[in-house]
Structures are given as C-alpha cells and as structure tokens.
C-alpha cells in the first residue's frame, strides 16, 4: 500500500469512477444506487422521487449545464484524479470539472453557509481508512436513476449527510463505502459498497478539460441551427 | 490506424455516457441512418458534434449534425479528432432530435472500408436499441 511521508495511506493517483461489481446497472454508464440497499422511507417524509413535469430545469438540469452535485457527479462515468498531502486531499473528477478539496487537518465543518451542490466535506483518518463526512447540501439529484426511468428522479434532501470511506483493498483497488443519512427521507442511514479501480495508464494524459457550456447545442431539447 | 480505432472502440463494449439523459434531447422512436460527407467536426464539450452533408433521392442536400461523446471519454476509447475529419464519407446511425431539427445522436459511424467507431455519447442507446428500427 502506498503511504505518505506521514505514514498515512496515499490515495494520490488516477482512477475510474466508483463501481459496484455486483450492483445494478442502469440505462446510462454512471453508477447508480441499488434500491435494495435503501432504508425504509419515512412515513410522511420528504419526497424521494419525482416525476417529469416538462420543465427542463426540473427534468434534466444537467442538460442546461447545471451542476451534477454529489454523489451523482462522483458516480458519473469519467476519470478521476486524487491528489493528497498532509492537510488536504483533492478529489478531482473530469465530468464538469468537479473538484472537492477536503481538509484533513481536523477543522470542523463550516457553519452558516448557503446549502451547496457538492456539500462541505471534512476528512479524518480511522486507522488506514480515510473518512470524509459531507454536510450542507441543497436538495438535488442523488444519482442518475432517471436515465433508466425518466419518471423516477431520485433526490436527496437538504438534511442529508454523506459519509465516504476509502481503504486500499489491494494494490489496484480502493474499497469505497458510501453511507447516506437522510433523516427527512429514510428511517435510518444506509450504505452501499463500491470499488474504485486505479488507472495508472491514464496518468500520462491526466484529466481533460470539460466545460459544459462550450458547445451545448441542444439545451432543454431545443437544438441550435446547423 | 482505423482498424486500431475500431478495435479500441469495440473493446469491452465500452459503455457511453452523456452529461444529460438521452431522453432530454433525442427520440428513440426516430432512428436515422444516413450516408454522406463530413463537412465539419466540433471536438468540444459537453459532446463532440460532427456535420454530414446528405443528399436525398431528389438530389436535395441536407446538413445533419450528429452528437457524440465527450472528447475526454472518446480519447480514452482511442478515438481522436483525426478519426473523423471533413471530407470523409461516412454512414451514421443514431436517433433524431426531439425538436424535429436536423440534429441527431450519432451512435455509430461506418467508413467505406466497413470499419466502425462508436461515437455515441448518449447513454447506452446505440443503434438498434431504440423503440424503432433504423431504416435506410
């Protein structure tokens, strides 16, 4: 297992997006959550899924280049690069230039800030496991399940806390567990285990630029003239 | 080179993905399969677009625009900007845009020598996977 000079596991490198080898496959290539992992819905809780209503901002916000958010964006089928030092780990994802800068220096979550698409992440070590807890989200897409069923757009609430656990499984694989604690929707937290495959052969190119606004020719399903 | 691209493109039946769902822009009940000459390639995000002049039975020329994957995804599949260039004759299979314009997803490109590349960028909705069968 690679280690930093401080003796912590070193996750710096280039990777595929998280996959669940035994999990469900959706219509798209992005990883989606397995509904069998979900905790029971809270009676009277906030809506977990919504049907399409014809408004592109509601039905397909990314078609207008609105953010993917976490965790949907992190599960999207693009390359990732992690860069780590003693005080931070940067989790960069090619899709829509996602970049989460996660402090590892023991600071608390920020307070009094506006809800965000990617949350406010803070990391700590539990032995050789990197634990990242993220809070302060706005209600947004949980995953890409609406690619499979356009009338079932899954949302997490603004009360959600995501806890990620990274641990080297073998020389080429990170075991990645994601816990969803969303007390407005579910009766209890639930988790799904994924794997993140190392892709050192992608190091030479690194991540490519991905500017959604560059040439988005059919926003909202209305295409530009040729 | 083209054979290399073909091999890489087919390896692992690589899944494809778009920044939006297929249904947001394209209609899988409206397949399209045309042959023509590439006039322009936009190797840009969030999807590449390539334009093809297609002549119909009456001799009328229409310029169709086809959407592919994101450049980064295609490059990791071995497909480069040089794989599809203006002047090339291509057959393109995909699905038409929902708005009825001359825009479409371009799932599969076939060159005159029979080699193919999957340029698809819209979910796994490759030609033959829609609700209608592609017709010439």
Can you offer a commentary on this structure?
The complex is a heterodimer of chains A (about 230) and B (about 140). With about 230 residues, chain A is an all-beta fold. Helix content of chain A is about 0%, strand content about 30%. Chain A has one domain. Chain A has one helix spanning about 55-60, and strands at about 15, 50, 80-85, 90-95, 100-105, 120-125, 130-135, 140, 155, 160-170, 175-180, 190-195. The termini of chain A are far apart. Chain B has about 140 residues and is mainly β. Chain B is built from 2 helices and 6 strands, in the order αβββαβββ. Chain B has helices at about 1-10, 70-75; strands at about 25-40, 50-55, 60-65, 90-95, 105-110, 115-120. Chain B has a 5-stranded mixed beta barrel. In chain B, β5 (about 105-110) and β6 form a beta hairpin. The interface of A and B includes residues 27, 63 and 147 of A.
Concise structural overview:
The complex is a heterodimer of chains A (226) and B (136). Chain A has 226 residues and is an all-beta fold. In chain A, 2% of the residues lie in helices and 31% in strands.
Described by the principal axes of the CA atoms, the overall outline of chain A is: globular
Label the overall shape of chain B: globular
User: What do the pLDDT scores of chain B average to?
Assistant: 82
Q: Indicate the CATH architecture of chain B.
A: Beta Barrel
Largest sheet entry of chain B = 5 strands, mixed, barrel
Side by side, the strands of the main sheet of chain A go 6-7-10-11-12
Proportion of beta-strand residues of chain A: 25-35%
